[in-house]
User: Fold this.
Amino acid sequence: MTTTQRGLFLTLEGVDGAGKSTHVQWLVDQLSARRVQVVCTREPGGTELAEKLRTLLLHEDMTLECETLLMFAARAEHIHAVIEPALCAGQWVVCDRFTDATFAYQGGGRELGVERIATLEHWVHPNLQPDCTWLFDVPLAIARERLNRTRDQDRFEKEADAFFERTRGVYLARAEQQPQRIQRIDATQSIEQIREHLGRQLDQLIEHRRIV
Ligand code: TMP
Assistant:
């Protein structure tokens, strides 16, 4: 009997306006073209219930505790219904944001700190981490300029510059602490330059999977 090789879990992160979403579908298309079965999803969201929680999270005023717990509530559903089943079936998962976003936004932006988020992480997904995370990074002025073009901004997009500076600071610190998992992408580069880099990385990931 052959056992199915577990899929890889790939995530994209960055402050609002860093430009990561431009690359999500492209990554999925590249993987499909390389004959990798892939599921594309996002957080908060990814299931019917978690998408309802997303609407609340992006548009309703709430306490920081409620916001953080709802992020993990949505995540618990998402992992259970989408991420784990796909990985176990050998599919790769490309996810627009995951728990790094909670450390950065709630932990850094909203100044909750690391400890309680680490506790929730340990509760909700003690044995699951992304295999590779791309952190799209731009100076705040550029992110802000892109954000200002967005109409109907959500609760996060409306935050002040200091919030995004703290959020970005936590992302960058995590990339330094976990260089084997989190890769910083200079998102001031052109879309073509970024895709060339991402494409090479996908080839390396696929090659590595073939060997192990
Ligand atoms: P998106 O615009 O990239 O889809 O993400 C929605 C917003 O949710 C974005 O402003 C970041 C925020 N967010 C958090 O604050 N904490 C989290 O854990 C996640 C996943 C997203």
Remarks:
- The longest strand covers residues 132-137.
- DSSP finds eight helices and five strands in the chain.
- Residues 9-211 form a domain with the Rossmann fold fold (CATH 3.40.50.300).
- Residues 81 and 121 are 17 Å apart (CA to CA).
